[in-house]
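Incident review: delayed structure delivery

Summary: a single-chain prediction request sat in the queue longer than the usual turnaround. Root cause was a stuck worker, restarted by the on-call engineer. No data loss occurred. The affected request and its eventual output are reproduced below so the record is complete for anyone auditing the incident later.

Affected input:
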Amino acid sequence: MELVVKNIAGKDTKKKASLSDSIFAIEPNDHAIYLDVKQYLANQRQGTHKAKERGEIAGSTRKIKKQKGTGTARAGSIKSGTRVGGGRMFGPKPRDYEFKLNVKLKRLARKSALTYKAKEGVITVVEDFSFEAPQTKKYAEFLGNFEALNKKSLLVVSDSNKNVYLSSRNLKGAKVVTASQINTYDLMNANAVILAESSVKTIETILSK
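Output delivered after worker restart:
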């Protein structure tokens, strides 16, 4: 699969980028995508949720009423979970939501996501570029040249590019990552995937291991 390399202004150049069929044109595995996205979202959870149980509620421990003769159910502590203001029964506790996935499955998920984006025709290859200083306006113009300004966009660069990254931070839906940082969630969530020319080989090297 070949794509014409564009410049920063969105114009075609005479160069072409070859995208490996083993990465961008495989048989997609939907279940692998599901698992990888599920793991990514689970890893974002803090897991610090906590509800107070009856032993943690401040209140008297005296018996509310006598055991028998009232005609109603027996009641002991005012901190019981059945009473207003009491502790919560079986409430959430701090926990870790992370779970393990095999590296091969995660690679398959990323390949599947890239294949879907290639089939949708939303992948663009652009010449390597950089900004002299962080400037949101420049990055907005860059996205506008590729009709991606008002879309969820993902720019993949080969190495860390601080000025480009800082320029994208204030734009809603715009994200910049290095080739080693791409994940299935970001790929599937993006409506426009822009690959820096040098990042293509890096992606193929990482995912072909």
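Verification: The longest strand covers residues 12-18.
Action items: add queue-age alerting; document worker restart procedure.
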